[in-house]
Write a structure and sequence with these properties.
- InterPro entries: Cyt_P450, Cyt_P450_E_grp-I, Cyt_P450_sf.
- Its cofactor is heme.
- Belongs to the cytochrome P450 family.
- This protein is α+β, with helices and mostly antiparallel strands.
- It has a single domain, classed as Cytochrome p450 (Orthogonal Bundle).
- The chain has a 5-stranded mixed sheet, with helices on both faces.
- A hairpin with a 2-residue loop joins strand 6 and strand 7.
- Helix 6 packs across helix 7 and helix 10 runs antiparallel to helix 11.
- It is globular, with a radius of gyration of 21 Å.
- The relative contact order is 0.18.
- The model has no long low-confidence stretch (mean pLDDT 94).
- The structure holds protoporphyrin IX containing FE.
- The site of protoporphyrin IX containing FE has 25 residues, from helix 5, helix 11 and helix 14.
């Protein structure tokens, strides 16, 4: 392989712009060779790349994610890092929990309840929507997971989950905060799992809807491909892989507020909606705003893609942010327009903010329906709020991964409104 310049520093400096910029400099091909963290890497782009990447004969996950990402965002031994049979058995745990009937409605109802309480508390003062959404989501997902968590602890869980996401892709203080947050939450949840297995009920509760096992029970009793229970730390990692991404929907809620602020007329469509517009709006938020920059794995064997050799072990990256702003795939990609999705669900390989392929068998996010449901709920709730948006810094810096409106989106609530 020819000596290629390592892209780690440009990635850290350019953030979301790195992949589109790299492709542009090479004439926008479907595959560009580079190096990342000292490793040969290939950046893939486009619907054919999505299909290629999500074929597990092509791309494996074991060993693909760097330690600093595991120690902050996903956790050691997480489902994200497994392949083959080990992945299928662990993935079934998430599919059964997150994709079963009633999950989206159950979580959405809990979010609605906690959001209403939160909004009641803002009367006559301001609120930072990002922080409020994170706390509401933490309360709701803890209820849903079966964790009996006092009010203060839910706020701490929200802050720790935000820290884990905020610090995964950066060196420095944000990264160390993320590591501490993960260590704290893993330790506490591992203890809860041990207590549940030991018959102590103090820290867990039945599903509020009374339907089926809670996530806590399911994870505590899950048997892996080797027939054994998860060790308490890995069980905690997987519980956090339910709790943390639910809290991360706060990023999307802040983006939804940003979109409504920039295009206030869209709120009318949401207010007049029977549900279809809110869903289309949620899809467009996930397409338009930068959240996941790319996903990655390792070439399972010597392969070819887009005219490039892909030697076994190459780090293969699938461009997500660039995919959603490619004018060949999305007419006028920098226009926020929910109508793109009105009356039509995205086809395979088109909208990939949570990965591509089959969520039940591959690595695609099993929480996608939940995300869309929660985001649609937030969009409708935000459209119904009578708030002022004071002067603030609403810029969304592209060099920062993950990014969000700098102010977190502050609102003030003049009178009793919901
Ligand atoms: C996997 C994005 C919400 C649980 C993923 C992947 C992405 C993603 C990009 C990896 C795909 C890949 O590796 O190829 C997001 C985004 C979300 C979100 C942007 C919005 C905040 C959720 C929610 C849950 C969840 C709400 C659970 C309640 C998971 C799990 C995996 C995953 C368990 C691992 C799947 C596997 O490796 O098989 N998500 N997700 N995510 N997500 Fe999400």
């Amino acid at each position: 392989m020819s000596p290629l310049i390592d892209s780690t520093v440009p990635l850290l400096v350019q953030g979301y712009a790195w992949a589109p910029d790299l492709r542009r400099r090479h004439g926008d091909p479907p595959a560009v060779r580079t190096r990342l963290m000292g490793r040969p890497a290939l950046l893939l782009h486009g619907p054919a790349a999505v299909e290629f990447f999500y074929d597990e004969r092509h791309v494996l996950r074991d060993g693909a994610l760097p330690g600093p990402v595991l120690d902050t965002l996903f956790g050691r031994g997480a489902v994200h890092t497994l392949d083959g049979e080990r992945h299928r058995v662990r993935k079934a745990l998430f599919v059964n929990l997150l994709m079963r009937d009633g999950s989206v409605d159950g979580l959405t109802a809990l979010v609605r309840r906690h959001w209403t309480d939160a909004v009641d508390g803002w009367q006559g003062r301001g609120a930072v929507l990002f922080d409020e959404a994170a706390t509401v989501l933490a309360r709701a997902v803890c209820d849903w997971t079966g964790l009996a968590v006092p009010e203060d602890a839910a706020r701490e869980i929200a802050e720790d989950c935000v820290a884990m996401v905020d610090g995964f892709a950066t060196p420095g203080p944000r990264h160390w905060r993320a590591r501490r947050a993960r260590a704290r939450q893993e330790e506490s949840l591992a203890r809860t799992v041990e207590e549940l297995r030991g018959g102590v009920t103090r820290l867990h509760q039945a599903l509020p809807t009374g339907a089926g096992d809670t996530a806590l029970e399911a994870v505590a009793r899950h048997r892996d491909a080797d027939g054994r229970l998860l060790d308490p730390r890995t069980a905690a990692v997987e519980l956090l892989n339910v709790i943390r991404p639910c809290v991360a929907v706060a990023w999307l809620a802040a983006f939804a507020a940003h979109a409504l602020h920039r295009r206030p007329r869209l709120a009318d469509a949401l207010r007049a909606d029977d549900g279809a517009y809110a869903r289309a709006f949620a899809h467009e938020v996930r397409r338009f705003y930068p959240f996941v920059p790319f996903v990655g794995g390792l070439a399972a064997r010597d392969l070819r893609f887009g005219g490039q050799a892909v030697p076994e072990g190459t780090l293969v990256l699938l461009d997500v942010y660039g995919h959603h702003h490619d004018p060949g795939l999305w007419p006028d990609p920098y226009r926020f327009d929910p109508e793109r999705f009105l009356g039509r669900e995205p086809g395979p390989g088109t909208l990939i903010p949570q990965g591509g392929g089959d969520a039940r068998t591959g690595h695609r996010c099993p929480g996608e329906d939940i995300t869309v449901g929660l985001l649609a709920e937030f969009a409708s709730a935000l459209a119904g709020l009578d708030t002022d948006v004071p002067e603030q810094d609403l810029r969304i810096p592209l060099h920062r991964i993950p990014t969000r409106p700098r102010s977190g989106f502050t609102v003030s609530v003049p009178s009793r409104q919901r």
